[in-house]
Amino acid sequence: MSVVTKTYQAPPFCEREILRYAGCKTANEETLSLLASCLEEVKEKLVYKVCYREFSLRISADICDFGAFRVRSTHLARNLAGCEKAIVFAATVGVEMDRLIAKYGRLAPSKALVMQAIGAERIEALCDAFCEDIKQEKRTALKPRFGAGYGDLPLDTQKQIVAVLDCPKRIGVCLNESMLMSPSKSVTAFLGLTHTVYATSAQKCVFCDKKDCGFRSEQ
Amino acid sequence: MNFSAYLKKNIVYLDGGMGTLLQERGLTVGERPERWNLTHAETITEIHKAYFDAGSNVVCTNTFGANALKFSETELEEIIKAAFENAKTARAQSIAPQEKFVALDIGPSGKLLRPYGDLDFEDAVALFAKTVRLGVKYGADLILIETMNDSYETKAALLAAKENCDLPVLVSNAYGEDGKLMTGATPAAMVAMLEGLGVDALGANCSLGPKQLRGVVEELLENASVPVLLKPNAGLPRSVDGKTVFDVTAEEFSDEVAALIQKGVRVVGGCCGTTPEYIRMLAEKAKEYTPVPVLDKNITVVSSYTHAVKFGDSPVLIGERINPTGKKRFKQALKENDINYILSEGVEQQERGVHVLDVNVGLPEIDEPEMLKTVVCELQAVIDLPLQIDTSDIAAMEIALRRYNGKAVVNSVNGKKESMEAVFPLAKKYGGVVVALTLDENGIPENAGGRVEIAEKILKTAERYGIEKKNIVFDTLAMTISADTSAATATLTALKRIKNELGCRTSLGVSNVSFGLPNRDAVNSTFFALALENGLSAAIMNPYSADMMKTYYTYKALKGLDENCSEYIEKAASFAAVVSAPITIEPTNAEAFKSELQRAVIKGFKEKAGAITKELLNSVPPLEIVNQEIIPALNVVGEGFEKKTVYLPQLLMSAEAAKSAFEEIKSAVAGEGSKSVQKATFVIATVQGDIHDIGKNIVKLLLENYGFDVVDLGKDVPIERIVETVVERRAPLVGLSALMTTTVPAMEETIKRLRIAAPWSKIVVGGAVLTQEYADKIGADKYAKDAMETVRFAERAFGKFSRKGLSPQGNKLDE
Predict the structure, then answer these.
(1) Could you tell me the pTM of the whole model?
(2) Domain assignment of residue A16, given as a range
(3) The three-state (H, E, C) secondary structure of B1-13, written as one string
(4) Which chain A residues are Cβ-neighbours of B405 within 8 angstroms?
(5) By residue range, what is the domain housing residue B656?
(6) Does residue B629 share a domain with residue B566?
(7) B299-336 pLDDT, tens digit each
(8) Is A168's Cβ below 8 Å from some Cβ in B?
(9) Distance separating alpha carbons of residues B482 and B104, to the nearest angstrom
(10) What CATH number should be reported for the domain holding residue A143?
(11) Is A110's Cβ below 8 Å from some Cβ in B?
(12) Which of A25, A99, A116 sits opposite B382 (nearest CB)?
């Protein structure tokens, strides 16, 4: 199965989520107007691109064997346990988001902060939209998505992911020396296809061990 | 026959897909196809031969990803050598009758260039240069740079080809469904840049099928004066029973592409999903077609990384504000390396509606080439307007043109032999529209005739350098009428004659005309109108002048250049607003102003804080404004933040409002010899390998508000650079930021080296992954959980320099 590239329409914006990423528990009038002006500027400038590939999966102990490549990680093996198939995907909202963040990083850090938060919310929203799409298309349930750098899954698994998905060519996502992606508002992850129904992203914090996280959702 | 000669007279057939065919033959996921040149030489040769047999004039070597980032130098050479052997064997084996060439195929590096990735432009040029030299060594007939989705990387590759061989170079970009490159460039922008750099043919490949690329092709054909190339996919890939199939058949594909040949495309082939069959059908269908001649479109055009700006009927506004001449505050920014100030001038002018930004950073005491390079790179990182490189320093001009992501305006050349000999070779190599001043060794001719003669001389010389008339824009030199009242007439007459008799575009530095007169805007805007009527194509002007903008919009409306006068109507409302006072402030006495200033800072009203400060400066000493009003207001917000009643965006808005107040103070005292003398220096950086700088920028803003002399080294900063700067400035305070666990070791190493080289410095660390424990482990003096804590620490560490003593405008300390 080869790499599939998809472009999505903008998923609905969630202002509450953006404010959470910006470190705001409540927002006063000035903050809301700041948010509104940032949203206005961002709206037409983003792209919503995903490329993905489906793999047959064999797990033995801490080795996840995707055929084309193998990954050693106890946490990933646990996450994908019971799945015969998994999707590896990469998603991005494009380089324009980085330009806006950089621009306001220079000119108005308050806007940079909000742009940064919008970028975080956008890429998560895109991943959610993609997962929902896959669920429908494959008529299956999904394991919570699992990215390089989570638990004991080494960050440099990124190299393999970016290579097997041909990311630079497909959606313009490249890796730098520190294994970070550019554009920065990009995500790669493993997605186990399963028959058991797991958490939706709205409850994602419930499944995370990092109890002291500043962004922990209070649901 | 060589390829260039063949291209002139014929439709050229390239080959089709390689990757998809290799996958069918067993290439596995993630495996490097280039290695197959060595391991599966016969398979590669067979595919090449099939394309030659199908009618391809050109096969591209299997070297798409053959670069020194992906292979060792030895392996790279082996691969490229084998790739050419395979292609040439195929050529020798094929008995098909057409002319046959072998192209060195170059794809993207797989890295994004700085500033949004980590590959430096010059490193990219060097990387491609290696591949080019090997291609030349093993006998390439031409070079095909393809599937590039970033204009900057495309420039690096083309420049590398041009600097390392004389072979014809074809460049093909991957456009998305929106008709643009991934990093934003339109086809017209790519045409401007690539033709400027001397490309032999240009076009589009990959990503989409021929139908979806039609719009892109039409835009290329409309703008290009070189042959246009098209190498589309066989539509979009779909998965059927686990196998990849493409949705456009050879029949449909060849119909679509053949139709575009009739529209003018001269170089055709296929990309992903196409096979020899696609090429065979296409060559068969287009066999009887006469190639559409490639005509010079005679367009005077510049470009940025997103779009092209044409010098045509509608006047081009070139913002003149990025220039230190006569601006104390700007000079100070240059001396202090305050790039943000310069960027804000750029953004502001863009908001006012200019189309191009003039960039002049010449000042005797600074390193102009270095500064111009920095400013050009910073501007093109965040502003999508084409730039006008304005310098008389040839080294600075070259480095700026080289780094520029597009085709720039070059300001300027003149009729002096020395000037033309220096500027024209640069314009030829890097491309650009050159502003030519009608003066020479004998000065500026007083009458129009003399200026036209110089223009003719410049055109002749330019031609010898291979620079076409369309790439010269004449400036007939606006001189002040206060010295000679016939000056404007001479300028306008010369302008009109150059336009009508020589058929050239023109430009003027409009504001010069009023030098020495009162109410200069009135003179400038009327002169501007006259110049436009005499055929002016572009004006270097002040977009903050309401009069100038009125003239511009009115002229367009009157000349039928503004459909339904809609632009005029939209702007008309703002004409009045610009003339009136920018912000009205209710209270009228100083005391009321003061509390109003505090409120503006606390509420985060940026413009208001600036405006009130400006008023206050008339009656209150700067230091008092800072210490009695701004700092106390900041403290209210800072304490609220610490108590978690104020959140980060509010803290930042207040900090920005304070900054705008400080900016007024800075402007007021700029040039009064009060350059900061005793402020504590705080060197701040995001450590090597880390590119997250929002947190760092927030800390910087707050520190500046509290009066520290912040030296911001940026992100991904090498250890050496941090150490050198701290030593050089003898900085007592250093702030290091890291967001990722993977970059904390770089932070630790930086601290170690600072302890040896700068034992006096206090080091504070912060960032998402850091904790007190981590900070202790790596030997930092302080872990600060947020920006306010850093400020508090810095102030405590400098107890002696109390907050009162640290004033941002550089007044002396009162210890």
Answers:
(1) 0.92
(2) 4-207
(3) CCHHHHHHHCCEE
(4) none
(5) 590-669
(6) no
(7) 999 999 999 999 998 999 999 999 999 899 999 999 98
(8) yes
(9) 62
(10) 3.40.109.40
(11) yes
(12) A99
